[in-house]
Amino acid sequence: MPRVIARLRDFVAAPSRGVTLPDGRSAFLVCVHGRIAAFLNRCPHQQVPLNVPEGDFLDAGGELIQCGMHGALFLPESGECVFGPCQGQRLEPLAISINAEDNVILTVE
Q1: pLDDT for 53-103, tens place per residue?
Q2: What is the pLDDT of residues 29-46, one digit of tens each?
Q3: Start and end of every Rieske domain (predicted)?
Q4: What are the chain's domains?
């Protein structure tokens, strides 16, 4: 069942945000170059949340997703790790869409 997990206006103040999915899993969304992507909040290296310690999901330049624990860097388009201990692995993507009311919808749970 499709569910609203964010709104486009949420990304005006900050280009990333954590969310809790309806099933209780932790996830996050990033907006890079006007494109929104969503992933489970779990680094493939040691299965820890990416924003630990508490922080943002993007690197200082706002271009790449970064694991706060290990410094691994991931492409926001695909979730592929391009630097760090899990290079070549990927974040687990979530299927999302944007409806006419500018809501970000989780399309598959």
Answers
A1: 677 899 999 999 999 988 999 999 999 999 999 999 999 999 999 999 999
A2: 999 998 999 999 999 998
A3: 3-87
A4: 3-106 (2.102.10.10)
3-state secondary structure the chain: CCEEEEEHHHHCCCCEEEEECCCCCEEEEEEECCEEEEEECCCCCCCCCCCCCCCCCECCCCCCEECCCCCCEECCCCCEEEECCCCCCECCECCEEECCCCEEEECCC
What's the rounded Cα separation, in Å, for the pair 109 and 107?
7
Q: How many residues does the chain have?
A: 109
